[in-house]
Amino acid sequence: MDFKDYYKTLGLERGASEDEIRKAYRKLARKYHPDVSKEADADQRMREVNEANDVLRDKDKRAAYDQLADHVARGGSPDGGFRPPPNWDEGFEFHRGPNQGPADHADFSEFFSSVFGAAERRGAERRNYRARGEDHHAAIEIALEDALNGAEREITLRSQELDAQGRPEFKTRTLSVKIPPGVHPGQYIRLAGQGMPGHGGEPAGDLYLEVRIAPHKLYRVEDRDLYMSLPITPTEGALGAQVKVPTPGGGVVEVTVPRNARNGLKLRLKERGLPGKPPGHLYLLLEIALPPADTDAARQAYEQLAQAAPFDPRRHLGV
Amino acid sequence: MTSSVSITTTTLSASHPLAASELAHACGAQIDWVVQLVEVGIIESRTPAAGPDDWRFHGSDLQCALEARRLERDFGVGLEAAALILDLEHEVRRLKGVLRAQGLGREI
After folding, report:
1. Could you write out the DSSP letters of every residue in A111-163?
2. Which residues of B74-107 are buried (b: 16+ CB within 10 A; e: fewer)?
3. Mind listing the domains of chain B with CATH numbers?
4. Cα-flanking dihedrals φ and ψ of residue A77, to 5°?
5. How close B34 comes to chain A (CA, Å)?
6. Domain limits, chain A
7. Measured between alpha carbons, how far is residue A236 from residues A230, A286, A290, A306, B102 in Å?
8. What is the ipTM of this complex?
9. Could you tell me how many CB contacts below 8 A there are between chain A and chain B?
10. Hey, what CATH topology would domain A1-92 get?
11. Euclidean distance between CA atoms A95 and A79, whole angstroms
12. Which residue of A has its CA nearest to B2?
């Protein structure tokens, strides 16, 4: 396990003020926001930035982290890897306040959970209060085929718990999750009791898995509807045609392309999208593809077409 | 130490919705905050209801609520501004999906 330099992650010096930390975080959170960032590793960078911010914006965690950083600077981990020294967090208490938002630490590094995970928990136990455990959030990416047919997927969760002597201990749990057919992006699968343990005898929180569907080579998913580009020839578009189309369920259907179909025309195959109540539709977006003019016969045919059907697609430009 | 267990799951939907208190807990918040989200239109009850006790929410509401929570916490924005940011985010994602389907995804 490597020691994480949270100041470096946020581009800050060790003595940075709270205001500087907040500003640096907001700047980077905008830079790596998944909807605006053009960086290939934006997701990973955003996780690192979130983790650094979680520690440095909290006075207690930051003080404990600084102490740990001093220990490392003094050569505290001679084998190159990092291991927190015993009782390093003595005298510090970490906890999540009631308005600190969801416990979404599932994405954070092993360094974070080994350093702060158990300490957060111990802090809660020291205060001796009763509350249901926090809900946890994670995402699960599945193939479109799994969304159509349902599937069973294993997920691995890592958490730290305290053993009988109060020492942190890593536990890995593998859960088998049933994905029901018809699940669509943005839906949540709820696993009761798989969140954080409760405090003072109260029940554990739940785990919410956000469903994401991996990009598919043919279909794009929007809610329960599926979209697919359907290439047709100019002849098929002009005269109409019957064309064969693969459906996501594995079958093939014959679709009527209407006469004088324009590029971008949307055809709907009712209830051929993701299953559900009601089922989604499959939309075909017509895309007119030109036959290459790479033989004399083809070139001649194009010329004959130009003569037989004079057509100026640029008439509206007025030149 | 590794252990393997099989557990029953539910998918949030019309037949398994979330109550306001469950949505609040999932976001690490209080019910008052959920009431504010409904007031600014970030989420809406999926069943007609007299008051917060009878409200029911779907997965898309949880997604919006979690995003609003992060915007509030990370950028200090008010919920009205969060509502606008969320609308714009969703539109950007939809448009990117359309472009990707037309093979233009890498250019944006």
Report:
1. HHIIIIIHHHHHHHHHHT--BPPPPEEEEEEE-HHHHHH-EEEEEEEEEEEE-
2. beeeebeebbebbeebbeeeeeebeeebeeeeee
3. 18-107 (1.10.1660.10)
4. -125, 80
5. 13
6. 1-92, 220-306
7. 12, 11, 11, 17, 20
8. 0.82
9. 115
10. Helix Hairpins (1.10.287)
11. 31
12. A172
Tell me, what amino acid is at A263?
N
pTM across the whole model:
0.74
Residues in chain A: 319
Q: Is A26 on the interface with B (CB under 8 A)?
A: yes
Residues of B in contact with A36 (CB under 8 A): 92
Q: Which of B46, B45, B44, B42 has the alpha carbon at shortest distance from B87?
A: B42
What is the residue-level pLDDT of chain A in tens, covering all 319 positions? 678 899 999 999 998 999 999 999 999 998 888 788 888 888 888 889 988 998 898 888 888 888 888 887 777 654 556 666 655 555 554 544 444 445 455 566 767 766 676 566 555 555 566 788 888 888 888 999 999 988 888 888 766 666 677 666 667 778 888 888 888 888 899 998 888 888 788 888 898 999 989 988 889 888 889 999 999 999 999 999 999 999 888 889 999 999 999 998 999 999 999 888 888 999 999 999 999 999 999 999 999 999 999 989 999 998 8
In chain B, the largest separation of any two C-alpha atoms, in whole Å, equals 49
Q: Do A222 and B97 touch (CB under 8 A)?
A: yes
The CATH superfamily assigned to A220-306 is Urease metallochaperone UreE, N-terminal domain (2.60.260.20)
